[in-house]
Amino acid sequence: MAILDAALNGSIDAINNTITWNTYIDSNQTVRYLYLSGLSRFRGNYSTEAEVYYQNKGEYKLYNRYPLNIELAEGAAELQNNILNAISLLAVSKEQNGIKDSIIKGYQVLISRSSVTRKDIDKDIHDLLKITEDLKKLSAYTSEIREGLDKLLAVMQRRWAVAR
């Protein structure tokens, strides 16, 4: 997992994949430190751990460790491939083959891009919405594909929120 953002002025060390917050906390005071990390594009089990240290008389002491295990049932890559397979398997009339082929080509271009900036992701979102609209032109049942595209749109929106 890569750390993408840390709230409350957390200092991110991208090389060691750590965040440091140096904060004075009064006794009985509660502080919540939040960070955003990006998971792999592939399904799997991912683990991370937060270690909390405190300083007493100039010496840092471990207060506690907080493990977090995340099971990602379907990563973005699998989602993209499942959508592409479902579009490819659509049974359409000869008259609609051109529309289907155009949707497949546009979708393949979309998922092949490595978009990292907000401008890039804006284009991806626009293209994804166009593909969703084009699916409505087909007489085949596309509800499951559109549900997959909705999930992919949510992924893109999260990526846009942390992009620069």
Structure description:
The chain has 164 residues and is α+β, with helices and mostly antiparallel strands. It has two domains: 2-72, no CATH class; 76-162. Helix content is 41%, strand content 26%. The chain has helices at residues 76-88, 97-112, 118-135, 143-162; strands spanning 2-6, 11-13, 18-20, 35-38, 44-56, 59-72. α1 runs antiparallel to α4 and α3 (118-135) runs antiparallel to α4 (143-162). The longest helix is centred in the C-terminal third of the chain and has 20 residues, at 143-162. The model has no long low-confidence stretch (mean pLDDT 90).
Secondary structure blueprint with pairings:
Elements (H helix, E strand, L loop, with lengths): L1 E5 L4 E3 L4 E3 L14 E4 L5 E13 L2 E14 L3 H13 L8 H16 L5 H18 L7 H20 L2
Antiparallel strand pairs: 1-4, 2-3, 5-6
Helix pairs in contact: 1-2, 1-4, 2-3, 3-4
Briefly, what is this?
With 164 residues, the protein is α+β, with helices and mostly antiparallel strands.
